[in-house]
Write a structure and sequence with these properties.
Order of helices and strands: EHEHEHEEH
Organism: Desulfosporosinus lacus DSM 15449
CATH topology: Glutaredoxin
Number of domains: 1
GO biological process, one term: cell redox homeostasis
Strand order of the largest sheet: 1-3-2-4-5
Number of helices: 4
CATH architecture: 3-Layer(aba) Sandwich
Shape: globular
Structural class: alpha/beta
Distance between the termini: 32 Å
Strand content: 15-25%
CATH superfamily: Glutaredoxin
Protein name: Thioredoxin
Radius of gyration: 14 Å
Length: 116
């Protein structure tokens, strides 16, 4: 079993290309000097392991334009997109139960097991 890894965004164009190619993505906004970000990221990656979703890591210090356009003003921030639409936003104090429920929803929709 391979371990999921995050895609590191280097340019706005790179992000736009990935968003156009992928049906569902997690955008993870962080900063290298944020201790909470460093603690949250491995937990997010572990959680995302069992789901058909790409994790995209964005440094707010390096990608200020992307952060601003995404209305990200604090880190860590997790945005989950499904079919190009934001369906979950968690900032600072991440509720991993919400993240997991959202990932379960995406997985159920993809496998045709919609919730009744």
């Amino acid at each position: 079993m391979s371990i999921k890894s995050a895609v590191i965004i280097e340019t706005k164009e790179h992000l736009e290309q990935l968003m156009a190619e992928e049906k569902q993505v997690i955008l993870y906004f962080s900063s290298v000097d944020c201790n909470v970000c460093q603690a949250v990221f491995p937990k997010l990656m572990s959680l995302a392991e069992g789901y058909p979703i790409k994790v995209i890591k964005i440094s707010v210090a390096e990608q200020t334009e992307i952060a601003g356009q995404s209305s990200v003003f604090t880190v860590p921030t997790i945005l989950i997109f499904y079919e190009g639409r934001e369906i979950l936003r968690e900032s600072r104090f991440i509720d991993f139960l919400k993240v997991e429920r959202t990932l379960n929803f995406i997985k159920s929709v993809q496998t045709g097991q919609s919730e009744e």
